[in-house]
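Appendix B, example 12.
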Amino acid sequence: MKVSLRRPFRSLVASLFLVGGVFASDEEVFLAPERFIADAFGEGGAPDVERLWLTTTLKPSIKSILGRDYPALRLRYWQRGSRTAWILEEIGKVRPITTGIIVDSGRISALQVLVYRESHGWEVKHPFFTDQFQDAQLTEGLRLDQTIDSIAGATMSVDALKKLGRLALYLDQQVQDSADS
């Protein structure tokens, strides 16, 4: 009698891929958002949270940056002087990437992946990638003024972080302009 191992073997392989896919797509927290905010402002502690309403005036530029409408009516941010801190999310391939961004005097002083939920592209969490955003500014055309190198296999995650960097700089401009008025 001939026993076929083909069917049990296929079932085992399919099960391993299914289980592996579940673990690979789990959320990975690198830094709690509240810790990021506390660290952003140092010893003096975090300032009170403020809110920026996404008005009809802001929405066209936000849509230009993201390629879609932002799904919130308002965004929370923290500010002390010329420094603002933002916790923003953008979809990588299928799941959101939570990112903390500090803007100081119109330049990104830090960009850090806080929570990563995708199964691919996780390389964007490392300083070798995020350090490229240091000192980036926003041009008049709502682009970053410096080149951010891509990572093979992480294109969508890279694009998501570039969009978030641009968005944080744009939102910071709006907050600073309203403080000057």
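The helical segments are 6-24, 33-41, 59-66, 127-130, 155-180. Residues 27-180 form one domain.
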